[in-house]
Each structure stands twice: as structure tokens, then as C-alpha cells.
Design a protein that fits this description.
single chain, 418 residues, conserved putative lor/sdh protein from methanococcus maripaludis s2 fold, Elongation Factor Tu (Ef-tu), domain 3, OB fold (Dihydrolipoamide Acetyltransferase, E2P), four-stranded antiparallel β-sheet, 5 helices, 33% strand
């Protein structure tokens, strides 16, 4: 009994005893989780917050030079054009058998560019050859008969004088001779017609060969073997040309000058051309002619400009900027060359013309001196240097030192589609 009582006492809960100390493991786990969240937040702020900034569009500043001893009196934009360019086609309708040109290939005058299927033309020539042969044989046959009748008429003439034959027999011989002579003339004319027809058939065969009309460079290949080509636009799947050839020695520049400034341009006037593809390359030239017609819609006059430099880098339809130079005046002191920027890069702040230059994801505000207006661009003579990046359409709240983010092509795409 005592043992049982002792066991029951041991199983009794002593509520007066102090509680066991709590475990701190959960507290440390919670503190570690909070610290991890704080670190992640700092990293996200450092990465995302640093890339944040005002989204802007930018453009590159283009350096321009002066004309040395000649000052530019006018600037205009235009394109390189070819005065001698042809889309070569066949003279007849036919199926292309072979094309012997490729884009960029140089061809000489008379070089074969393509051939057409000559089956029909060859058949026509064979028929004309046979007809010409038959006509020549007919001529020889009639000529032999004429010789026989002439001999008969001559013999009967002698016999008539001797009164050995009647006069009527002689007259019949003379009539037969004259008839055959006329028949011979007709046969000879038929032979000539057949010969002419054969020559035309030869031309038809030659028309199946397409040749280059002049020396130049192939800029387009328009047909492939098996296609039907025709000099007339018949629609459907019929091609109208084999390829396009450009005479690179005939390249020149066509610019459109505003009516208000055309008085500054004179024939033989020196110019300096700058291709958009090669901004640092100044090409000398001169004015060929001023086209005596104006465009009513654009209020411009077209001016032809000759390039004095021949170079394979100059190709048709290239954009070019032309500076018309004023020659023959005393040389002026060399001026510091300016730069060219889009007009949208110039902003007005506190009554001053400024531009914002992007460097290390921040903008620098610079005061600029603005010169001439050249189309959609403005000349800046002070404050900017070639190659720098400027902000276009700067927001009103943009200030010096602000962080910016240059809009990428993917970000600009929705705006362009709108």
C-alpha cells in the first residue's frame, strides 16, 4: 500500500514549481527572416532604384566644318541620283532560259545579261531559210527558161529574114521571151522578199538575247529562269524587266532649295557635299544647272550638283547635305567649327537656350549658342561637341544632375505604332 501511495504522489503534478525556461530557437529564426527581408529590400532598391530615372529619347551631336576660305551661303539636303540608269527588258515576250547577272556585278556594253527560250524564233528562221532557198531556185529556173526563149527568138529572127519561117512564129517566140523576162523579174523580187524575211527572222532570234545597253553596275535582278518576260505590262505573273543597270560615272546630287533662297545659287557655283553615311567626308562639287521649274506644293526649286570625286562608296539614293560655297572672296579667319543637332534638343530655360547632355546616366545642363536652321536641325556654335549625346524634347522638370534612363527601341515601339 505504501508503495502504491508513493507512486501516486510521484505522478501528481506540482503546480507550485516554477515553469521551465522558454526555448529561444523560434525567436532566432524570426530575426533571421526579418534580416533576410531587409537585405533583399536593400538589394532591390540598389538595383532597381539605381536604374530608375526620367525616361528620355536622345540623339548624337554631329560635327560639321566650315568651308575653309569659302563661306557657306546656303545649306540644303538632297539625294544622290544617276543620270544614266535603265531597267533592261527583252524586245519580245518569251520565257527566260538563263539569267547571267547578279546584284553588284559590273557589266560592259553589249554583254549578255539573259537569254530567252529560242524555240519559236528558231522555227521562224528555219522556215524563212527554206522559203529563201525556194525563191532562189525559182529564180534560177526562170532564168534558164529565159535564156532558152532568147535563143529561140534570135534564131527565128534570122529565119524570118531568110523567109524560111512565118512572121507569126517569130512573134510568138518574142512574146514568150518577154513573158519569161517579166516572170524572172517577179521571181527575183520574191527572192529578195524571202531574203528580207530571213533577215527579220535572224533579228527575232537575236531578240531572244538580252544585252546590256551600256557599261554599269547591276543594282537589281528582276527575273529568274522559267519566268515569262514581256516589254509590255500585261499583269499576272509576267515580268517586265530582267534587271536594272546604273552607270556609276553619271552619279550626281539633286537638292531642293526653297524659293526664298534660290537667288543665292548660281551655275558653276562650288559646293561641298557630305553624305549622311560618311559625316567626316567632304566631297567637292559644283552646280550643274538650276531646273527652271518650281514645285508649287513644296515651294522649292530643284538644283543639280556634280560631284568631282568618283568613289564606290557613293551609291544612288544616298542622303546628302550640300553646302553652297561663296568663292572668290578674301579668306576669312578660320572659325571654330560648329555642330549639328535636332531642333528638339534645344530647350529654353530662364530665357536662355540650353541643351541637356547625357553622361553616366545623368544629365548636364549647358548653355548653347544657336546658329542657322538646316531643315529639322539646328547649328550650335558653342556649348556642344561632336559625338556627345543630347536629350530630345527635354521634360520641363528636368534639371542639371538628374538621373535619366534612355528609352530603348522596344520601349519606343508602342509609341511609333500609335
Amino acid at each position: 500500500m505504501n508503495n502504491s501511495a508513493d507512486l501516486l504522489k510521484e505522478l501528481r503534478i506540482d503546480r507550485s514549481a516554477p515553469p521551465p525556461p522558454p526555448s529561444r530557437r523560434g525567436l532566432w529564426i524570426a530575426l533571421a527572416a526579418v534580416a533576410a527581408l531587409v537585405v533583399l529590400a536593400l538589394i532591390a532598391w540598389a538595383v532597381l532604384g539605381r536604374s530608375r530615372g526620367v525616361e528620355v529619347q536622345t540623339a548624337t551631336v554631329t560635327a560639321i566644318g566650315n568651308g575653309g576660305g569659302s563661306a557657306s551661303v546656303l545649306d540644303a539636303t538632297g539625294y544622290v541620283v544617276a543620270r544614266r540608269m535603265a531597267t533592261v527588258s527583252a524586245k519580245i515576250t518569251g520565257k527566260v532560259r538563263e539569267v547571267l547577272i547578279e546584284e553588284g556585278q559590273r557589266v560592259e556594253a553589249g554583254q549578255i545579261m539573259a537569254t530567252l527560250d529560242p524555240i519559236d524564233a528558231d522555227a521562224e528562221r528555219d522556215l524563212a531559210t527554206a522559203q529563201a532557198g525556194a525563191a532562189r531556185s525559182q529564180v534560177e529556173s526562170v532564168r534558164a527558161r529565159v535564156a532558152q526563149t532568147e535563143a529561140d527568138a534570135h534564131r527565128l529572127s534570122t529565119l524570118v529574114q531568110q523567109q524560111l519561117v512565118s512572121k507569126s512564129q517569130y512573134d510568138e517566140a518574142v512574146a514568150a521571151r518577154d513573158s519569161l523576162r517579166a516572170e524572172l523579174i517577179t521571181a527575183e523580187r520574191n527572192a529578195k522578199v524571202a531574203s528580207d524575211r530571213l533577215r527579220i527572222a535572224d533579228i527575232g532570234v537575236d531578240n531572244t538575247i538580252v544585252r546590256a545597253p551600256f557599261a554599269g553596275v547591276v543594282t537589281a535582278k528582276a527575273a529568274q529562269p522559267g519566268e515569262i518576260v514581256s516589254p509590255l505590262a500585261t499583269g499576272g505573273f509576267t515580268r517586265t524587266g530582267i534587271g536594272t543597270i546604273v552607270d556609276m560615272d553619271s552619279l550626281e546630287v539633286e537638292v531642293e532649295v526653297g524659293e526664298a533662297f534660290i537667288g543665292r545659287v548660281q551655275p558653276k557655283m562650288p559646293v561641298e557635299a557630305t553624305l549622311n553615311a560618311y559625316q567626316d567626308w567632304k566631297i567637292p562639287g559644283e552646280v550643274i544647272a538650276i531646273i527652271p521649274a518650281a514645285d508649287r506644293g513644296k515651294a522649292t526649286v530643284k538644283v543639280r550638283v556634280a560631284l568631282k570625286t568618283k568613289d564606290p562608296r557613293i551609291v544612288p539614293d544616298m542622303g546628302v547635305r550640300v553646302s553652297f560655297l561663296e568663292a572668290g572672296k578674301p579668306e576669312q579667319p578660320a572659325q571654330k567649327p560648329g555642330v549639328l543637332v535636332p531642333a528638339a534638343a534645344i530647350s529654353s530655360r530662364d530665357g536662355k537656350q540650353v541643351a541637356f547632355v547625357v553622361a553616366d546616366e545623368r544629365v548636364q545642363r549647358r548653355e548653347v549658342a544657336v546658329g542657322r536652321s538646316l531643315g529639322d536641325d539646328r547649328e550650335v556654335t558653342q556649348g556642344l561637341a561632336g559625338g556627345e549625346t543630347v536629350v530630345l524634347d527635354a521634360p520641363a522638370g528636368l534639371s542639371d544632375g538628374d538621373r535619366v534612363r534612355v528609352a530603348t527601341a522596344s520601349e519606343e515601339a508602342p509609341t511609333e505604332t500609335e
